[in-house]
Amino acid sequence: MSSHNTGSIRIAEPPVLPDWAARSVDLANPRIGAAALYASDDFFADVSRMLNPDPAQFIPGKFDDNGKWMDGWETRRKRTTGHDWCFVKLGRKGTIRGFDVDTSHFTGNYAPAVSIEATVSDTDDVAALKDAKWVEILPSTSLSGNSHHLLRANADEAFTHLRVNIYPDGGIARLRVYGQPVGVFEGRGDELVDLVALENGGRPVAWNDAHFGSAANLILPGRGINMGDGWETRRRREPGNDWCILQLGGAGTIEKIEVDTAHFKGNYPDRCSIQAAFVEGGTDQSVITQSMFWPVLLPEQKLSMDAIHTFTEQIEKMGPVTHVRLNIFPDGGVSRLRLWGKVQR
Fold first, then answer.
1. Angle CA(110)–CA(74)–CA(32) in degrees, nearest 5?
2. Residues 165-209: pLDDT tens digits?
3. φ/ψ (deg, to 5) at 242
4. Are the C-beta atoms of residues 156 and 179 closer than 8 Å to each other?
């Protein structure tokens, strides 16, 4: 495993995701409500760092009161029997396909093994969780230092909480829980919901360029916190335009669109348009090919800097769709995309 060097700070390389992970939502992302609730021990590094959505980093020479500062969850050296563990609340109840147990930058101090259990609970109370019935969805698995471990879960049902066990002690830099939210549209009736939001199961499928900012940022909760918290492409020096494809959390009819260029001022797109389709079957690669020929949901619209652009009357009547293709002309940055609609019944 390699890492980026940024001066004295080293930032871990992202993993190459298999299809089951790439087509999933990280249910342990704090930006959709996930949280580390409790740890048996986190003397060297607070367990909450393990869920940070940013890549793990290593800062040579950085120490705190307890020793070397590490970007992840790290327990003290265990001098008794037993093992360390923590409770994690998922951001949404969901089915779990697998995990990335990432030990980036942990070398002589990584956890030698991990297992993961899951449960369904309507409370985050630690005492109640200790008494809950837990199901093992990842048996004890050996880990290596400074590595991504992409591990399949052994489960079909949906869960709300995890118990992460490390044997006997040590550190994990990041935990990603790849799965799909369930029940997010139940009881919503005819109200408008953001069909593409990350917390509702939306996901980025493909994009032609994301040099300065990930397409996944488009569907994060809230407005962007800065210019880096959006999708931004490089400066285009050839004909054409940039684009990204997103899959909705559920099929639905789109009635209101918001394109937010928050923080993008000298680098917002001049115009945008959206194509859409109801896609059944196929792969992400086949969706890319098809998307060039999808019908237009939103014809080209002029954009301005640092603003929320709301479109209703301009939307073409199309019925339920599952995927959209956001086109920006010719290039630039968009902070958020909201697709408000009604779920297909």
1. 110
2. 999 999 999 999 999 999 989 888 789 999 999 999 999 999 999
3. -95, 160
4. no
Amino acid identity of residue 180, one-letter, is Q
**Token representation of residue 53:** 């959505």
Sequence length of the chain is 345
Structure tokens at 324: 């959209």
Percent of the chain with pLDDT over 90: 93
pLDDT in tens, 142-171: 999 999 999 999 999 999 999 999 999 999
* Distance (Å, whole) CA 223 – CA 229: 9
What is the sign of the dihedral through the CA atoms of 211, 28, 179 and 150?
A: positive
Q: Are 219 and 202 in contact (CB under 8 A)?
A: yes
> What is the value of pTM for the model shown?
0.90
Cβ atoms of residues 39 and 73 within 8 Å: yes
Tens digit of each residue's pLDDT (9 = 90 or more) over 294-314: 999 999 999 999 999 999 999
Number of other CB atoms surrounding residue 206 within 10 Å: 16
- pLDDT value of residue 11: 96
Interior/surface letters 112-148, b for 16+ CB within 10 angstroms, e for the rest: ebbbbbbeebeeeeeeebeebeeeebbeeeebebbbb
Of the candidates 94, 253, 83, the residue with the CA atom closest to the CA atom of residue 172: 83
How far apart CA 242 and CA 331 sit, in angstroms, is: 6
Helix (H, G, I), strand (E, B) or coil at 217: helix
The structural domains of the chain, ordered by start, are: 3-181 (2.60.120.260), 193-343 (2.60.120.260)
**CA triple 73-78-84, angle to 5 deg:** 45
